[in-house]
Write a structure and sequence with these properties.
Blueprint (H helix, E strand, L loop, with lengths): L1 H24 L4 H77 L4 E3 L2 E3 L2 H14 L2 H21 L6 H22 L5 H17 L2
Antiparallel strand pairs: 1-2
C-alpha cells in the first residue's frame, strides 16, 4: 500500500508539472488535470489502505498477545501445584534417607529397612531407595517434575512483557525442584553434608511456593 501511495504522489507531481507547463504555454490543461486527479485518488487510496493494514495488524497482534496472556495465566497456576507435588515427594524421600543414614551409623543395632537390618549406611540407603522405587514414589516425583518442566516450557512460549517477572519466578521454581530431586535420587557426600543439602533444598523450594 505504501508503494501505491507513492505511485499516486508521483502521478500527482507529474500532473502538477504538466499543469504549470500548460499554464505557462497557455495550452489546454485537461491532461494535467486528469493526471493530478488520478494521482490524488491513488495517493489517498494508498494512504488509507496502508492505514487500514496497519490497524488490522495491530488488532491481530493484540489478539495474539491476549491469547498468550490467557494461556500463560492458565498454565502459571499449575506451576505452584507441580512445584508443591514435586517438593512433597522429594521431602519425603530426602527426610527418610537422612533418617536411615543417621540410624545406620549411630544406632547400635543399625536400621531396619523393609524388614531387614543394616549397619552399612550405603546398603541401608540403597534398600530404602529401592522401597520408594517399588512403591512408585520415585516415579510420582519424576512425573511431577516432568509436568513442572513442560508447564514452564509453555510459559516461555507465551510470555509477554506483562509476565516477565512471573516467568522468572517459575524458572527459579524449576531450577530448585530439579536440584532437590537430583539430591534425593543421587545421595552423596557424608551424612552431615547430605542432611544440610536436603534442608537447604527443601527451604529454597518452599520459598518458591
Amino acid at each position: 500500500m505504501l508503494f501505491v501511495s507513492g505511485l499516486g504522489l508521483i502521478l500527482l507531481i507529474i500532473g502538477a508539472i504538466f499543469f504549470f507547463i500548460d499554464y505557462a504555454k497557455g495550452t489546454h490543461k485537461k491532461l494535467s488535470y486528469i493526471l493530478m486527479a488520478i494521482g490524488l485518488i491513488i495517493a489517498i487510496g494508498g494512504y488509507f489502505g496502508n492505514t487500514y493494514q496497519i490497524k488490522q495488524e495491530q488488532i491481530r497482534q493484540a489478539k495474539i498477545e491476549k491469547n498468550k496472556e490467557k494461556t500463560f495465566a492458565s498454565n502459571y497456576s499449575n506451576i505452584r501445584y507441580y512445584t508443591y507435588t514435586t517438593g512433597i515427594k522429594a521431602e519425603k524421600i530426602g527426610d527418610k534417607l537422612t533418617s536411615v543414614w543417621h540410624d545406620a551409623i549411630w544406632n547400635d543395632n543399625g536400621v531396619t529397612v523393609d524388614g531387614k537390618s543394616y549397619t552399612d549406611f550405603n546398603k541401608a540407603i540403597e534398600a530404602q531407595y529401592a522401597v520408594y522405587t517399588s512403591e512408585g514414589t520415585i516415579d510420582k516425583m519424576d512425573t511431577a517434575l516432568s509436568h513442572l518442566e513442560s508447564t514452564y516450557a509453555t510459559l516461555k512460549q507465551n510470555v509477554t512483557n506483562k509476565n516477565e517477572t512471573k516467568l522468572a519466578d517459575a524458572k527459579k521454581a524449576v531450577k530448585d525442584a530439579k536440584k532437590f530431586v537430583n539430591l534425593v535420587e543421587n545421595p552423596s557426600g557424608n551424612y552431615s553434608t547430605f542432611s544440610d543439602n536436603i534442608s537447604e533444598a527443601d527451604a529454597n523450594l518452599s520459598d518458591d511456593l
